[in-house]
């Protein structure tokens, strides 16, 4: 069975002149392009909880699953992010099946921290996943897998989001990272990057440094993935999203 390919709304970043996406306005188009799920970005939500409820309703009407991406860290100075409960509540408003954050300043999983996490995971029917960011201290395979080991010891069902491009920023071979993290990865962000005069920049699916087809083959087809790179503006964006989705499903 082909890998389930969704769309992170960052793909629409260049479609509007001000880079702001009214996410509730693009759900129908996303569904019509054949994507079974959309990853809603918290930073693109313009009208707070009202908009979240509208997104949830429209997605339900379209039979479109919702994932929720929050640009925040799970841990701050070793403690759980004080806003974590709010993020779970927002995920519930969106009727999201998944909540994604980055790890942050993890300093060990005490019994108190584990119980707080367990309470949230029990009270909200949303899967928590942690993504590798663009720093060695918070996003390297060793750091992330150490966290997963402690989460499993505490019987916490938490997965990893594997961002295919972020490892390039910290000079780690994505294939080495895939080998180290494979069995804990529950979601993939498809993002390719290349070198430019200004440094590392986002690129198209097959125009960057990473052999994306070979990298995705490192993970079981049961692990869902989403397109998470700008796909251009206007009609070009829609055409690119649809073409790249079809290509990814054929690999």
TrEMBL record:
Entries under InterPro entries matching the protein: IolE/XylAMocC-like, Xyl_isomerase-like_sf
Q: Would the keyword Isomerase be found if you checked this record's keyword annotation? A: yes
Could you confirm whether the keyword DNA damage appears in this record? no
Coiled-coil regions, chain positions: none
Instruction: Please name the GO terms that the record assigns under molecular function.
Output: isomerase activity
* Keywords carried by this UniProt record: Isomerase
Query: Organism's domain of life?
Result: Bacteria
Q: Which SUPFAM superfamilies match?
A: Xylose isomerase-like
What is the name of this protein? Answer: Sugar phosphate isomerase/epimerase
Please give the organism. Trichococcus flocculiformis
